[in-house]
Amino acid sequence: MNSKKPKPKLIPKHNKTQKMNRLSRQLQRNHGWILVTINGTPYNRGFQHGQILSNELQKLILFFPKYVQEEMGFSTFDKYLEKTNTIIPIIKSECSEVYQEMEGIVAGALSKGIVINIEFIISWNLSMSLWKSHITKHKKHQHNNSHNKKKARCSSFIATGSYTESGEIVMAHNTHTDFIEGQFENIVMRVYPDKGHSFVMQTSPGLVWSMTDWFITGSGIIGCESTISDLNYEPKFGLPIFCRIRQIMQYAKSLDECANILEKRSAGDYACSWLFGNVNTNEIMLYEEGIKFHKSQKTKDGVFYAANSAIDPEIRAKETTDKTIFDPKRTTGARMLRLGKLLTIDYFGKLNLESAKKIIADHYDVNLEKDHPNQLSICNHLELRDINPYPFGAVDGKVTTSALAKKGEFIGRLGSSCGRVFNAKQFLRKYPKYNKWRDFLPDFPKQPWVKISL
Predict the structure, then answer these.
(1) Domain residue spans in the chain?
(2) pLDDT mean over 92-121
(3) 26, 19 in Cβ contact below 8 A?
(4) Domain 153-437 belongs to what topology?
(5) Which end of the chain lies in a sparser environment, N or C, as judged by fewer CB atoms within 10 Å?
(6) What share of the chain is helix, strand, coil (3-state, %, to 5)?
(7) Contact at 8 Å (CB) between 173 and 357?
(8) What are the two backbone dihedrals, phi and then psi, of residue 208, each rounded to the nearest 5 degrees?
(9) What is the strand order of the sheet 187-193 is part of?
(10) Are 121 and 206 in contact (CB under 8 A)?
């Protein structure tokens, strides 16, 4: 740690009651969600992050190296860190503010007896970028590991104008991921930085960005995304996505700024269909980026939705091998078809909080023409797949509107958009080949939809 770094401003040790009251105000719990508030300079807010979430960081230290090997396909965690270390100079020179914040996370965790180094924190923040890079480069591993194709990570939509009941924005998203990783994605953090504007994001311990990509900012910008799958190129760094999206959350004041920040020094390390809205103007934008092509659409009367297939035909044709956008037998195609019907026909003009919750929790299988929760449904369930089930699927649901977002609020449900109950012991008893994850696989009890307000 750089000895010249400013020491965090802490309440004196002799006043333990006052210190505990301060920390309790910064940490709340709401039906599985962990709500955290941090503020101040980069180092100080990082210190608060590391201190408040020290227990969660300890779990991360045990989990992440195994995940890198089992799911990302690196032979050892050291090999993964070698790749991380080549990108650290870019972060230090071009993302100095978030680098200082990460230094603060390390120090804050250490103050609670948790030893974690900055290389580990950076490697965790880079995981989505490096996963894309490594799997694209090593196609053989991707094909041999039947679970890597599961990385179709979410369903999402944003609507405005005549498509919504109020004429204002309605946005919804759920995260599709391994249950092992998904258990860490229950953090909602409100950040009051000393520069820029405040923001609320769903995140994980140790991250300086969302990674699940759900955020509401003090400038009126809201956002979510759906990753673009089946890339046919190897990303090259560039400015990592976590630096760019964090800059949007903290500094962007318009939709055009969001696009400009994402495009700056991007090398397609986290190709996504980004859905942005401005709750001050009720304008929405779809921004998609690959490695060479970047396309955007804006409207004050329309809907954009995404389910891991590039919407823009040029990006899809030239930068992916994806042929599934309207294939009902594949998860991307089935979800795109279902989202299109729900958003443009069934709920046209009726989109509000309640209908958004129903859509993001939808289990309809377009092939069977009935409710059948599986890998094809908007609320994704690979753990219920008929062939080769896997502990993966929707691990949350979030919806917000212009009115809620102006107050930095959203409605969220942890565990699954539909409230699925998952019992790890029962699953492992039925599918013992996943016993390697016994120490990490969580239970997901049924949780209610709750208002998230920090």
Answers:
(1) 40-130, 153-437
(2) 97
(3) no
(4) Penicillin V Acylase; Chain A (3.60.60)
(5) N
(6) 40, 25, 40
(7) no
(8) -105, 5
(9) 27-30, 33-40, 187-193, 199-203, 214-217, 221-227, 272-278, 283-289, 294-299
(10) yes
Q: At what angle do helices 127-137 and 77-94 cross, to 10 degrees?
A: 120
pLDDT digit string, tens, across residues 339-370: 999 999 999 999 999 999 999 999 999 999 99
In terms of Cα–Cα distance, which of 214, 223, 230 is closest to 271?
230
> How many angstroms separate the Cα of 451 from the Cα of each of 24, 66, 192, 222, 354?
19, 34, 20, 17, 13
Task: Tell me the C-alpha distance between 216 and 223, whole Å.
Answer: 7
Tokens, residue 107: 């120090």
- The DSSP annotation for 313-340 comes to HHHHHHHB----TT-TTSHHHHHHHHHH
The CA distance from 406 to 353, in Å, is 15
Average pLDDT, the chain: 91
What the block records as the tokens of 377 is 């449904």
Token representation of residue 317: 């044709």
Coil, helix or strand for 344? Answer: helix
**Distant-in-sequence, close-in-space partners of 299: CB < 8 Å, separation ≥ 6:** 160, 161, 283, 284
Residue 348's alpha-carbon distances to 66, 134, 173, 278, 359, in angstroms, are 45, 41, 18, 21, 12
Q: How do residues 224-277 score in pLDDT, each as one tens digit?
A: 999 998 999 888 788 999 999 999 999 999 999 999 999 999 888 999 999 999
In the predicted structure, residue 11 carries a pLDDT above the cut 90: no
150-209: per-residue pLDDT in tens?
455 799 999 999 999 999 999 999 999 999 999 999 999 999 999 999 999 999 999 999
Residue 78 · residue 232 · CB < 8 Å: no
How many CB atoms are closer than 10 A to CB 317? 13
Confidence grade of residue 73 (pLDDT, cut at 50, 70, 90): confident
Separation CA 411–CA 404 (nearest Å): 9
Alpha carbons 367 and 7: distance in angstroms, whole number:
59
- In this prediction the pTM is 0.92
The confidence score (pLDDT) of residue 21 equals 55
Residue 346: DSSP 8-state: I
Instruction: Give the max Cα distance, the chain.
Output: 66
Q: Structure tokens of 30?
A: 């709401």
